[in-house]
# Entry
Amino acid sequence: MLTDKFGRTITYLRLAVIDRCNLRCTYCMPEHGLAWLNRTELMSLPEMARLCGLFAQLGVEKFRITGGEPFLRKDLLPFLQQINQLPDVREITITTNGLLTAKYIPELKKLGIRSVNLSLDSLNDDRFFQITRRRELSKVLHTLHELLAHDIQVKINTVVMGRQNMEDILPLVALTRTLPVSVRFIEEMPFNGDTFIREQPWTARQIVDYIQQHHPTLIQMHAEPHATSERYKIPGYRGDIGVIAAFTRSFCGDCNRLRLTPTGVLRTCLYQSDGINLKDSMRSGKTDLQLIELIKRAVMGKAKDGWAAEKESRLVSPTNQSMAMIGG
# Structure
């Protein structure tokens, strides 16, 4: 089992399989995009599968596949098939923007994918375009309904940005009245690869208060272990609401997660500025046992929380990083 110096057992890996994305969301990257990596700089399918096997041996039970946009990777489905066969894996989930996802949903269902996180920051076509710089809302909504039609649980991820999509909070909440979805509102973070947040972000508390002003019967639900979101429900509604304190970082205390970037860098915290490059270690000839020791060493150095990780990293400015590079 992977255990850090605070006694926390690590059971969850977020694996970014690609840095590229077919959207240009304002909170993630500049309008002109980023300097995309050469294919040789990304981990290959065998390299990713090898590392996932080692993490599974060490007690990681849940794998979340992210990007960039993971479905831009042509070998994604063969990779999912490989890690789905690992005997110790309990759950595989995917975070996607939904533009390319719909045609793969029947295969995802066959693979036993039970949950997908769908990024959706607005239900208004014009605001969706202003945020993502692409007019593709209809494709995302089609993916949403296809996922539900195949009985795959959907969590909608919405980054809350003052003056950009405040008008969408209540319409997104309204989705939970008739659809069995979880709409999760996320505090805006500074990882946009360009400039820092232009104004003070809305906190999780402000988001909850705003929803409660319009839905006074809103009740808080029981929190699951290691949950990143506080969950709420409006009585009589099919779905529920989550609020994630990604910037104020109030959920860090019992963190059980690691991140692996597309280039193979293992990061023990989102707010950590560097990490151990497992891809380079594999390519230099490290054995599985040597890789396991590197992983254990990294986990033992995991910071107490996101604030400590940022302080330890001595980041002059975190804004030169993008979530597309870190892993969404």
Q: What stands out?
A: The chain has one domain: 2-326. Residues 2-326 form a domain with the TIM Barrel fold (CATH 3.20.20.70).
